[in-house]
Amino acid sequence: MTKESALSGFNRMRSKLSFGRMVEMAAKMGMENPLFRCHERAAKGTTVIDGKEYINFSTYDYLDINTHPEITRAVTEAATLYGTSAGASRLVGGERPPHRKLEKDIADFYGVEDCIAFVSGHATNVSTLGFMFGHRDGIFHDGLAHNSLLQGARLSGATRISYEHNDCDALEALLAEKRAGFRHAIIVTEGLFSMDGNVPDLPRLIELKKKYDCLLLVDEAHSLGVLGATGHGAREYFGIDPKDVDMWMSTLSKTLCGCGGFIAGSRDLIEFLKYGSSGFVFSVGMPPVIAAACDKALEILLREPERVRKLQDISQYFLHYAKDKGLDTGASQGYAVIPVIIGNSWVTGFLSQLLFKRGIYVMPISFPAVKEGAARLRFFISAAHTEDMVRKTLDAVVEEIPNAQAIVDKYQSEHTDVLNI
Ligand SMILES: Cc1ncc(COP(=O)(O)O)c(C=O)c1O
After folding, report:
1. What CATH fold (topology level) applies to the domain 19-56+305-414?
2. I need a labelling partner for 353 at 20 to 30 A (CA). Which of 4, 92, 122, 271 fits?
3. Is the pTM here over 0.85, yes or no?
4. Distance 291 CA to ligand 1 centre (A)
5. CA 201, CA 389: separation in Å to the nearest integer?
6. CB 128 near ligand 1, within 6 Å
């Protein structure tokens, strides 16, 4: 094959990325690409880009734990003892003490028997669902479930049944109609939805999983450390028995300031995953330094519940201030994830850019990450944010919306043939 034909093949594949066309179009309109910006220090409540400080709403460091000196010390000690790599899959290369300590501490945190840690949060969901279920099974998932859950469901070959976001009546109707046709079935939801910032009706989901003999997986990526008086997540928020959820999943990349993911549950389930799930068996073990970092972050979370209170207070303040200003925060309940829904993707993109110029870093989210016409600025709130930062930001949002709209209107009036919005 000639170099040219190979390249044009690649370009045909690339055309799958409508995003590429959007970036091109945005550049023509004068919009800078907001993605992949380089931050010059740890991105916390504020961040530094090109030497300039910004109020930062794009970090998962919900409890303001990243860069904590105790974590730096724990990581340094672990690196000195074990190096930076686990060397091989834990199955064959063996464990290091921080692996099992982290897993035991997470299991205790959840009040369940055991836990397994994977090198990636995304791979945790893909490998767990992909391994556990097969073509005779059914996976009932919330319509807004994260990409990793959907990819896992796809890999499994099970029948995927999406129910309307957070609509337990719709789920029950589907279970009544279809559950009997499957060997095994699972209900999959998130503890706090990552785009909308709302919680599911977990007690009802537990009732349904019992009634229809299903397993239940709750992805706590955004609810660990965020929900409940002491940050114990959805189970504390709802006061439920942790054993009523079969798989407590979460990433280690958000509140716990590391990288990776885990499943916590019964000893039998964890052993099953340890010997079978591909993302664990055929992938290197998590670097021991990361396990040590996450374990220390967990210790800080448990020792300092005031961080959780601070996060919850500032999140509620943000939500109410935004609503008072007439902004559309959708279904958000004011726990760390709060969208400001703008609607039009281009207006949202320009709004993000105008805010950036005013020292505010917040990402625009548009289709396909959210429904067409529901583009938004997504604010991740951190315990490091202050009321002053929130007011400054939301006042700026209100002021800049008409300016962003005006840029798009002007372009549209001059290029009616190009911009179909
Ligand atoms: C709900 C949810 N699950 C899983 C993941 C994947 O986790 P990670 O980014 O740690 O791989 C994410 C990532 O943002 C998420 O939001």
Report:
1. Aspartate Aminotransferase, domain 1 (3.90.1150)
2. 122
3. yes
4. 17
5. 32
6. no
